[in-house]
Amino acid sequence: MFPPNFAHDKLELLYHGMTESLQIAIIATVAGVLLSLPLGLDGRAQSVAVAAGLDRARPDRARFAPSTP
Amino acid sequence: MIIAILFVKAVGFGALAGMLALIVASLGFISKLVAEAVEEMSMRQVEAVRATGAPFLSLVIMGVLPQVMPRFIGFSAYQLDSNLRNSALVGLVGGGGIGATLFTAFQRFDYDFVLTIVLAIIAIVMVGEVLSGWMRRLFQ
Asked: CB-CB: which of B19, B31, B51 is closest to A27?
């Protein structure tokens, strides 16, 4: 257990595993965050649309008159 | 971790399974936080952009995104930090990366190397923590 093994072949193995882990983490974060942006906006898109008067189904909820009848 | 097991069964051992599992985990978490951020932002800017006759996509890009961007960057930094930790975890169930190396070393009773790996993981997580904190301070 102690002391830790810092042999050269082990460090090679460690380096490969660690770079792969970092790649997994970074790619997953970038892809997940980019995909979550439209998803998260879509969750609230309706409230934005209503506030902006875009929701034709509920013009009564608009804060100003819709420009298109 | 359960999602990781699911993806290992679906696409086989390797980094792809761990990546997909982490993507799904990040997706749910970040989109929930983005939705909350969009909910509590000011609608006045959205109305102002709408008043210029902008279509919906421009409305989102010019009215919504600038307001949520600092918080969004903060969420992303936190998620990167979290994924650095979780990428070690998904390796244990066959998701590739340092977790797979750790698991192999543990099964070979190569405990000296296990200690090396654990120290390296701790170092990486601490560096990631410092980096994400620095990034959040920079943008807020």
From this structure: B19
